[in-house]
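Hi W.,

Here's what went into the run:
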Amino acid sequence: MADNQKEYYLGVDLGGTKILTGVFDTKFDLKGTSKLSTKAGRGVDAVIERIARGVKEAVDECDLSLSQVRGVGIGAPGAVDTETGKVIFAPNLPGWKDVPLKKELEKLLDVPVFLGNDCNVCTLGVFDQEFKAKPKHLVGIFIGTGIGGGLVVNGDLYCGHNLTAGEIGHMVIEVNGPKCGCGNRGCLEALASRTAIFRKIESAVKDGQETLLTDMLGKDLKDMRSGDLRKAIRRGDKFVAKVIEEAAEFAGIGVANLINILNPEIVVVGGGVIEALQDEMMPTLVKTAKDHVMSGTMSGIEIKASKLGDNAGITGAAVLARRGTA
Amino acid sequence: MADNQKEYYLGVDLGGTKILTGVFDTKFDLKGTSKLSTKAGRGVDAVIERIARGVKEAVDECDLSLSQVRGVGIGAPGAVDTETGKVIFAPNLPGWKDVPLKKELEKLLDVPVFLGNDCNVCTLGVFDQEFKAKPKHLVGIFIGTGIGGGLVVNGDLYCGHNLTAGEIGHMVIEVNGPKCGCGNRGCLEALASRTAIFRKIESAVKDGQETLLTDMLGKDLKDMRSGDLRKAIRRGDKFVAKVIEEAAEFAGIGVANLINILNPEIVVVGGGVIEALQDEMMPTLVKTAKDHVMSGTMSGIEIKASKLGDNAGITGAAVLARRGTA
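Here's what came out:
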């Protein structure tokens, strides 16, 4: 089949718990998706096969065949070498060290594959599709289980010397603050991620704090989700409202640091926590950020919640495939 | 005189207290300098005339004339518009708001003038002359009365949307930490600048802390300089050693944040405090930074003290002139 008939791009969002795949046409309309659990515990090879299966299922869902796909992009949760297409290290995927993901998938799919870090890829998706690649400089910050980010500089994804730029979640903003998964203290991720928020709530509940959440989910807060916090706040739970307010303040300080350092045109905030709690968090986040940016340097800079939500990853991965095959 | 006979670049480092000017030949050998106090209190026009006088004195010192100068670069302490050549705002120069410095100086000197932010200009000087423009991405951080920085991305000075990128000193690293001149709390500048270090020492001495510094300078620590701290430490003053150790730790956390965000090839540390206390601060600064950078992302990245010292400003300003007239 001639290349000009290969009219689709695939984007894969590889996460620690699920693999989301989207099929986009050349206008970037989303034609269909597939969703599989990652089953990371089964090992590297099994996950790679599941990614390939997810791709095939998404293509089939759209009544297409792989021969109509121009390229597949993947965002992986860890340090990646975008040039060789290797996952260097992925903290949430056991055993993933120096995995030649691009090469293995190209063997299984016979389609060009392009690899990026998940948060960089989300940033690329938001930049290219939500903002139509117009801003010169943009910072993406994604608040979910962890906090990650991506930088667009002069219209291009900026990856740095070891291709690991954008580790925004491990910026220390409170020396001697709470312990972070990375081993340090006071990282933004240890103060404003879903993990940090849930830990704070669980610890307070253990200490006898009353909250609607225990009525909703039971004393052990089983299966708590960000959406539960939104419900509790809307029903008047002042404790949960305060925890979320504080997380939004920390996130706002993180955003201010990024604006002071990078002075981008747009800071876009996304991820599961923001998707669920946008109305509760964004006003405080924006106000705190503006209060902490150097006087006179904020002119024309916008801080916005992303509209792409959970689709930022598959969108960005498909953009990666388009840029790679262009 | 033909342009190819205009064989000199001038670099001006405009500070709150002094105006330093350097004459460089096309090989960037420093042929001579002039130094004038700024006399900022005399107002904007008086300072502009003093800058012009400093330029003329430096040229005369080298037995040259202005007609042999290809361009003059200036680093100014504040927000500048590099395109129009205006100083937007300079916190340490009273009355400096929207000052068309380029235009005014070109009137007085009849030579092309190029303007940059002082820390950006220092970074450019270190990048171009100390590192021979080889690193792709470099971050400069300058610790003096305040703390400022500059970013080189893809071999070029990165200035951001409002041309104010690199405000590294106002990155919050200790929420609710000590008050900063900018009005916020816990900025790097409020923890690791000369001002922060001196304030800590003065306050401890008031509270009865014993230190060799009072033997050296008297009870009121009059005219204390960074070099005095070095002398006290080398004579065994454990209190001063501890204050400097803590400042180096804070600076190291700031450097780690920048590496986590930007993953540059080189972080170069300069400024008066580092020039005076390099041996005392750099080992702790580098160790703390490495301890706080995300595991596996530091490979090949160097953290170095600049060798240009106080000449970084005039060197960078002359590089600005060379790039502007190229």
